Amino acid sequence: MPWRQRCWSPGRKAPWHWPIVWQFRACSFPARVGSDLFAAPLCRTGWSMIDTLAGVSGDPVHWAISLVLVGIWLLICWLCLRKPAEQSIDKAECLVVFASQTGHAEDIARATHARIAAGGRPVQLLEADCLTPELLDAARKIFFILSTTGDGDAPDNARAFEQRVLSADADLSGKRVLLLGLGDRRYSDFCGFALRVWNWAERCGAQLRVPLVPVDDLAPADLARWDQHLGEEGYPPVPAAEDRGQSWQVIERKQVADAAFGPEGEQTSDGLYRLAIKPEAGGRPEWDIGDLFELETPDGHFRDYSIANLPGADELLLFVRRVVEGGVAGRGSGLLTSIEPAASNQAASNHAGSNFTGRIRQHRSFRPPAGQGSLLAVGAGSGWAGLRPHIAQAIAQGRRCWLVFGEREAGQAEQLFAEMREWHEDGRLQRLDLVLSRGGGPYVQTLLEDKAREVADFLDGEGCVVLCGRLAMGEASLAVLRASLGAEWLEQAQADGRLRHDFY
Ligand SMILES: Cc1cc2nc3c(=O)[nH]c(=O)nc-3n(C[C@H](O)[C@H](O)[C@H](O)COP(=O)(O)O)c2cc1C
């Protein structure tokens, strides 16, 4: 995606004249070349209007009408031909900069922005990739809200920031900087990216009067410290605009894959479940492709699950791996998969313990890939949930789709495969490769490596890739694609929005 489009400041409306401008610009390929090509005909047309209207009579009314028409004409010409602004984000003395992979940091940044804006001071909210030296220069106070992904990596919307801004020294002297890092202590590089930004800010002479606020797995106590710092900065709490969730019920549950075991033979999962859930209060839930269902556990933890069906249905479809750690079922997955399905709304409300709290959460970095090219979908296990709506939409758009999907063993997973096979047999999927890893079988990344030539032909320049599943599978698959398609292809696809991934 071009910089200009991505860095349109969140919440800011496009100017009213954009439709006109783009109609003119759309006639040409590159906008600037198009504008230049238009220049001569536009000017000639304006001149001939004066010539025709005023020249046919010496009547002052005709002159006045012609001048008004020419004025309008000149305005349109100016809007079409002027150089696009280099910077579409206003400089502000206070910036709220976020980096977020699955949307939590973005939600907190929006709330922080709303809280500061409530005080009446100008404040700008922006993704880290949109932060330029000019914006930094103009700012007096900067609030960074940064999550860490991968293996201590920056989220996708902060990769350019890391390359462009963090690699160089800036003069941050006299600027007050506060930093909130979202992470999870189960990862070895806890809040790694936020720490790198912290070190950079310190090196550049920023005023860092409070230490980095690290948040472990969205722990309420950690978030409360951020709230407290905002209060001390003179921004009192404002009523939360956001709905923290509603009551939901499970209406269908089916096990679709067997238990899984780790390399040491320890059980890591009790199986994969296909669940249909709906709001207890009724009404049709609203979501977009890529969005997540966020479960709030009774002890205040949050767990995300990809929504596996296309928007427009009355219920959400989830594929939940029932995680087992040290013989104990996972907080979120254990809860969701143990709920008995309700036969009806009435039955559900009578069924003690059958309801749970959750909400739909936007996941902007996992929206359908841009463009109209062929779609290569790669995933394993519960990653099917993330891939499924992307594939369904691409099929509906008449795009060619190739699914490369892995599970541990056939067994109950045949039920999961049945749908994929059906889509393949009736021609919706051009190509389907199912791999089973148990007993030394190939992994999805091995298959991608073996079929490197065919993958390159299938994607043919403008193709798109969607990946979803465990981090190890995802990173290994990306590494294979980087080797076979070239780092440049992958970076371009990422920049164009033709590469989307959701790893966990
Ligand atoms: C694939 C993946 C990789 C992660 N890697 C790390 C990591 O290396 N270090 C860390 O502290 N947290 C890591 N996390 C935890 C996230 O930072 C944490 O869940 C955070 O709340 C996500 O915020 P976001 O939704 O704004 O991206 C990872 C999470 C995921 C899903």
CATH class of the largest domain: Alpha Beta
Q: Total number of helical segments?
A: 17
Bound molecules: flavin mononucleotide
Instruction: Look at the helices and sheets and give the structural class.
Output: alpha/beta
Helix content: 25-40%
- Flag low-confidence runs: 1-5, 8-39, 83-87, 347-352
Number of strands: 18
Largest sheet: 8 strands, antiparallel
Instruction: Give the amount of beta strand, in percent.
Output: 15-25%
| Second CATH tier, the architecture of the largest domain | 3-Layer(aba) Sandwich
Assembly type: single chain
Cα Rg: 27 Å
Spell out the CATH superfamily of the largest domain: Flavodoxin domain
Please give the domain count: 4
- CATH third-level topology of the largest domain: Rossmann fold
The dominant shape is: globular
Overall residue-averaged pLDDT value: 86
GO molecular function, one term: flavin adenine dinucleotide binding
Domain Flavodoxin-like: 94-231
Enzyme class: oxidoreductase
EC number: 1.6.2.4
